[in-house]
Amino acid sequence: MAERWRPARRLVVLVGGMLTLVCVVFFAGRLTAVLSAMPSEAAVTFPEWALVVALAPVYAAALVLLASAWAMLVGAHGLSASRLVDVYAVAQFGKYLPGNVLHLVGRHAALRHKGYGHAFLVRALLAENGLLIIAALSVGMVLTLIVPATVVVGWVSSVMPFSVEMRWLAGAVVLVLAAAGLTILGHLTGAPVLRASPLVLLFFLAQSAIFSAILAMRTDSLVPAAFGAVALSWIAGFVTPGSPGGIGIREMVMLAVLGDTLAPDDLVVTVALYRLVTFAGDAIMFGVGLIRQRFR
Question: Residue 157: which domain range?
């Protein structure tokens, strides 16, 4: 049965990889064009570079929330929560390698070596992926609904018109549906999904805050419409097979969602700086996890 579906899986990964390559090339072209046409006074400033350096460890700390949520889902079974976080930290950097699955394979192999059952780990993986998608969708949609009109609100209202006052009600409905989905997911997988969900929600809120901080430095003002864009772009990168770390895909979604809200140069530079923050944060977490494992 596995052999039958292998060509289809390879095709899906290949298509996803090609889509990622197209998005990366397009975004790189946009970034190059913006930087070459940008006047010297509008170039990336020292305070912006300093903010990137300062936010990288903040993002790494936010990743600990995801690692802790994963540790909750797989349970101890002889390993402490801190050891599980270290396993997550070291394996997670594998998402930047081609295929975007080596971080999952690495965690699975590490815990199998520690005596975890294969079926149990598969259920935990399904619980984790479902939790991540539901949490990201909830944060992205709720933040998008309750801030001033954005592209996403326009898309929704074109299908089902609603007034500004109804956005809060729509946000509440999203949260109720998310809670129901997490409850069902927990029952199906047997994992403590609801208990782990606050950590994942906090991670996506932290992502939004980090991106908004970079954008505020760039534009000298808060841009509420950007708050939900990060979580929505994260979903696109997450579900695209063969996209290492969501590179290219997430940037394209941010450009699509915020393109009518911000000046092109501010948006493109901010998205590029945010990618630097996330990559550096992943590298910091990998390094800390590797050191902790070596000295245990």
Answer: 2-294
